[in-house]
User: Which sequence fits this backbone?
């Protein structure tokens, strides 16, 4: 599936459905082992507004020759630096699983720099940054890592059975798992000044009600919570409903409305 480099930053961001000037931008962060193309279907569902940009992490697809990050902090640093081109109009963040944490950390860095931040964070399929679990998937052998991908879904099983595809995808996937499983929210990290919309599958093994509820501690602007039927990749089965929820949160005045900056 072809991806188109955006005119904002051709290295880090991909845009699938270009829109006209003045549209709201939704910047999406992939899950562990995921790539920008994962959000292609959601971009079509949302078009023409909000306009979706997907982050392309190093180590996969057209960036496969670049080394992957195995820690969240330097990855968030690099993405925040690349965000300068988005300061001209409102944008929101959407992150699924590991992507929710990366989005949260990028928003923290923008806040620290006094740069324009997201008008809203959509945190999908991930417990709050302040909650801790001991996870060791990144320490498994290749067979064990593949078994985890099969258990969670979201990955084409045919690709998991192809040795050549596995040789390309397992190294960045392992790096992602290392990054998220060694992550810890720094003590004293202030809450964000944008609202947080939390999305979860009601049978997701990676989240509990208490861990999801803890997202409310990470914002001064309020959090709302939405449970969908399904597991970790519930969003694959509920894209129209998800798109409607996103539009309602970002475009409360209809397709022509534009969200205000936090604090405005």
Assistant:
């Amino acid at each position: 599936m072809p991806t188109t480099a955006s005119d904002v930053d051709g290295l880090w961001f991909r845009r699938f459905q270009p829109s006209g000037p003045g549209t709201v931008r939704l910047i999406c962060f992939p899950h562990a082992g995921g790539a920008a193309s994962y959000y292609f279907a959601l971009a079509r569902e949302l078009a023409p507004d909000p306009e979706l940009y997907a982050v392309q992490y190093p180590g996969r697809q057209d960036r496969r020759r670049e080394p992957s990050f195995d820690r969240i902090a330097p990855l968030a640093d690099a993405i925040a630096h690349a965000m300068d081109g988005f300061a001209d109009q409102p944008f929101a963040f959407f992150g699924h699983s590991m992507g929710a944490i990366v989005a949260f950390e990028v928003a923290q860095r923008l806040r620290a720099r006094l740069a324009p931040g997201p008008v809203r964070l959509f945190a999908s399929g991930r417990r709050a940054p302040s909650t801790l679990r001991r996870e060791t998937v990144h320490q498994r052998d290749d067979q064990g890592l593949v078994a985890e991908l099969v258990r969670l879904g979201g990955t084409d099983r045919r690709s998991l059975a192809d040795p050549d595809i596995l040789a390309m995808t397992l190294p960045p996937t392992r790096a992602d798992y290392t990054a998220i499983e060694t992550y810890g929210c720094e003590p004293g990290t202030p809450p964000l000044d944008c609202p947080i919309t939390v999305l979860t599958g009601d049978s997701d093994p990676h989240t509990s009600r208490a861990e999801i509820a803890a997202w409310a501690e990470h914002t001064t602007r309020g959090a709302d919570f939405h449970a969908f039927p399904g597991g970790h990749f519930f969003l694959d089965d509920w894209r129209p409903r998800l798109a409607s929820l996103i539009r309602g949160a970002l475009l409360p005045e209809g397709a022509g409305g534009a969200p205000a900056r936090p604090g405005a």
The CA atoms of residues 58 and 210 lie 33 Å apart. The radius of gyration is 17 Å. The longest helix spans residues 163-181.
